């Protein structure tokens, strides 16, 4: 045996590890750039009060404007002057004072122009975190855009009769609320303007006759019977929690307290959430009664995760957000100014269930059990039923992009973090594709279908090669959506949300059904020709041919190039 032959295995091993470091480095670099781009995008949306108003913006309200003075702390904006340096008025922005006021999907920054008598000449929306469709509807509504025109600072500050724009209610009301908040207006809900009425509390206090403002706690009401006897108290989560957005919008919830300040019951008054989700929460009696008996102090100190409060299946985000509004409202009334309680991740029953499934998948992948047909089929059924239809736990581009942008939700999604850890660590430390082969419900469904029909479709080589490019193209699309913040849901390019069919969109259901149908005649068709997440995991996997620079590596380099180009274009 020659010296060259002895050195080859070592050189191959070095090259293989170098390429692995390169691939993981590419992956980490793309994640980092998505995060940096997201932070830059959020910064652009927030803006600052010190940001200068351009002369072109000023001329839209002051045709004689010649220059802008420096930022003035007296009104928090910039004075506009003419060629003779005579003040024409001034302009202020609602950001950052109103950054906490969220519309449909993000905050807004509005420019307000005042004349020298501090009367509003008009408004202009500078930036918006809401969708372009919602913003366009607001901009086209002349009645809304001129609603503040002619009002003095004080009149606009105290304005209560704000009508939202049809089709963009949350966006328009958030803009109005931001304006009023910036001018120093008292807290008031423009999204839930209807006050509490005595009829609403009779479900908890049968003898309730009147509601009266509780002077010790503004925003809370006493509940009295016809003789004036105190029965308890009532309040609502709005406006204190209007900026807690669930799946699609905020929710206003009634809180009834007995005479000892303990929760007697809660009731959803109005919500901007999907009606089906709200209906499921209302019908889930264990959740709606979960807070009964808690004192106001206990509710204010409640850690939802430490108390192991789980959301309603199919409406988890909606229900957990409602629970958070209760806690936030209780804290408001207790007037807590201490630091918030330490947040800790708590293991739930679903986390345990998913953990057990992952452990069994590891056992199946790395032991002779994988050769036991009945055990393998039984476990595939468990994956489909439990991880798919019951828990809905699957790794997807939508989840990975969301985590890259905003961080990993250790407390909210412990079981998903476990799944993602298994998906990415297994290819790194072994040659096994643990997630795709042993943990993915959609992969398990395809495995069960592979021998249902007695025949298989043989694809031409050029067709097969062309189809294999689809996952890479979907990864490019996911990167563009993440970096450019397009209003597109990445759940539509993968089938995983279809297992939660009550909340799935038609696009993801179509992807699931077409993929499964194709798998009847072409084994594992979706995994081979349609799955971007699977393609990513294959790219990171260590295998016998991973010491070669392949087409996948060139594609990964292309993704980095796209990400760098977008970052540079935004920073320039």
Which structural class best describes the helix and strand composition? alpha+beta
**What spatial form do the alpha-carbon principal axes imply?**
globular
What's the story with the biggest beta sheet? 5 strands, antiparallel
**Count of structural domains:** 3
Strand proportion:
5-15%
Question: How would you describe this protein?
Answer:
The chain is of the alpha+beta class and 572 residues long. The chain folds into three domains: 55-182, no CATH class; 198-334, no CATH class; 349-571, no CATH class. The chain has 23 helices and ten strands. The protein has helices at residues 3-46, 55-59, 132-139, 142-145, 153-157, 169-182, 198-201, 275-283, 285-288, 296-300, 316-334, 349-365, 373-390, 397-406, 414-429, 434-438, 441-449, 461-467, 470-484, 506-521, 525-529, 532-540, 551-571; strands at residues 67-72, 77-81, 87-93, 108-115, 120-128, 210-213, 221-224, 230-236, 251-258, 263-271. A five-stranded antiparallel beta sheet has the order 1-2-3-4-5. Strands 6-7-8-9-10 form a five-stranded antiparallel beta sheet. Strand 9 and strand 10 form a beta hairpin. Helix 14 packs parallel to helix 19 (470-484).
